[in-house]
Design goal:
Layout lengths: L2 H12 L11 H14 L9 E5 L5 H10 L2 E6 L2 H10 L5 E5 L13 E7 L7 H14 E12 L5 H9 L7 E3 L6 E3 L3 H8 L3 E8 L4 E2 L2 E2 L4 E8 L2
Parallel strand pairs: 1-2, 1-4, 2-3, 4-5
Antiparallel strand pairs: 5-11, 6-7, 8-11, 9-10
Helix pairs in contact: 1-4
Length: 230
């Protein structure tokens, strides 16, 4: 069993390191409100399907199903997370699979309206992230949406230290000292360079609670609303 899978199986059993919520992510709720304001229910209705890469206990797909009637597909590396998600999703049109987000998805071309990559793909190395991007593009409908959230390197003192003391063998990456796993961090320019040839970047937001009393506080994150080109 990989360190990554072992960590998340143990975490979903004990919540030793992270406070795992059953509530939908506030960033996702905000994204859905933005979609509604700009497009009505075009992408959020009973005929549309969402793919959550790193679906965890199912909280975000459950939100989309209960709020908008959407169907969902959830991938998560943790078998324990999938068990919890299935228990919480009774009677909802959501299918979960315990698997990595690496490799080819068992999903039809151009069948997904909304893809969620929320704090998931930063565990992948550069070539693996490129393969993932290609798979997302394959399964997404033309004009579909990728809601993307990950770690932001800019002005994050935690990241500066990790890159200096625990650097990995790729740029903008380190080996997490506690978890022992690879993690990638983005800058806004590197995110745009990676996605803009394939997506229209409609909105980017950065978190601002990374400093407190002049010292490093929370890890910094970046959110992007990305529309697949037609």
């Amino acid at each position: 069993m990989s360190k990554h899978k072992q960590f998340w199986n143990e975490e979903y059993k004990s919540s030793k390191h992270l406070a795992l919520s059953d509530e939908p992510a506030e960033d996702l709720e905000k994204f859905c409100r933005w979609l509604e304001r700009n497009y009505g229910k075009k992408f959020l209705n009973v005929t549309t399907q969402a793919l959550d890469l790193g679906s965890g206990n199912g909280r975000n797909l459950i939100y989309l199903a209960q709020t908008y009637g959407m169907r969902g597909i959830g991938y998560d590396i943790s078998e324990e997370a999938v068990k919890q998600a299935e228990r919480a999703s009774k009677e909802l049109p959501i299918k979960y699979t315990a698997r990595s987000i690496e490799g080819v998805f068992d999903i039809k071309d151009s069948s997904i309206a909304v893809v969620l990559d929320m704090m998931t793909s930063h565990f992948l190395r550069e070539k693996e992230r490129e393969v993932l991007r290609d798979e997302i593009l394959r399964v997404m409908k033309p004009g579909g949406w990728l809601f993307f959230k990950s770690f932001l390197a800019e002005q994050d003192l935690h990241v500066r230290r990790l890159l200096k003391e625990n650097a990995a063998d790729e740029a903008d990456a380190y080996i997490h000292p506690k978890l022992g796993v690879y993690e990638h961090v983005w800058t806004e320019s590197s995110l745009r360079e990676f996605f803009e040839p394939y997506f229209t970047v409609h909105k980017i937001e950065r978190s601002h609670k990374h400093m407190k009393d002049g010292k490093a506080f929370k890890r910094r994150t970046i959110v992007a609303y990305l529309e697949k080109a037609f």
